[in-house]
Amino acid sequence: MKKYTLTKKERLKKNKEFKKVFDNQYVGYGKYMVLLYKENDLKYPRLGVIASKKVSKKAVERNRAKRLLREVFRLNKFLMKKGDYILIAKKNILSANYKEIEEDFINILKGKKLFEGKS
Questions:
Q1: Contact of 70 with 101, CB cutoff 8 Å
Q2: How many CB atoms lie within 10 A of CB 94?
Q3: Backbone phi, then psi, for 83, in 5-degree steps?
Q4: What's the rounded Cα separation, in Å, for the pair 82 and 46?
Q5: What is the distance between the alpha carbons of residues 58 and 116, in angstroms, rounded to a whole number?
Q6: What confidence tier does 1 reach under pLDDT thresholds 50, 70, 90?
Q7: How far is CA 112 from the centre of its chain?
Q8: Taking all residues of the chain, what is their mean pLDDT, rounded to a whole number?
Q9: N or C, which end of the chain is more exposed by having fewer CB within 10 Å?
Q10: Which residues 6+ apart lie within 8 Å of 97 measured at CB?
Q11: What CA–CA distance (Å, rounded) separates 85 from 40?
Q12: Contact at 8 Å (CB) between 10 and 44?
C-alpha cells in the first residue's frame, strides 16, 4: 500500500536546497502556480513551496495557498518523475478550488514531461 504522507525527507527545507533548484531548473508556468524542477539522485520527489506577500498580505491566506500546493503534490507524487520541485503560488490561487489547482499542476507536469501517470 502506498503512503500518501509528505514526510520530512520529501521536503526542501534548507536555503541551499532551494538555491540548487533555482540555479539549474526546468520551469513550467500554469494559471495558479509556477513549477521549478531539478533532477536529483534520490528515489523520491521532494517539494518546496513558496507563497509570497504578492499572493496575499494575510498570513492565513498564504498558508492556505501553501497547504493547497502541498496537498496536490502529496496526492500525485507517485505519478511524477523523481526530482526536486518548487511550487510558487500565484495571486489567483486563492480564488480556485482544489480540483482546478490539481488540473493545472498535472497540465504543467505533462507539458514538461514530468508526469508518469495515465493520461
A1: no
A2: 17
A3: 165, 180
A4: 8
A5: 36
A6: low
A7: 14
A8: 93
A9: N
A10: none
A11: 10
A12: yes
Q: Give the angle 102-105-111 at the CA atoms, nearest 5°.
A: 140
Q: Which three cell numbers stand for residue 12?
A: 526542501
The x, y and z cell numbers of residue 72, run together, are: 496536490
Q: pTM of the entire structure?
A: 0.92
Q: Please give the pLDDT value at position 24.
A: 82
> Where are the domains positioned within the chain?
13-111
The C-alpha cell at 39 is 533532477
At 49, give phi and psi (nearest 5°).
-125, 135
Cell of 23: 540555479
CATH of 13-111, one of 3.30.230.10, 3.20.20.210, 3.30.450.20, 3.90.1010.20: 3.30.230.10
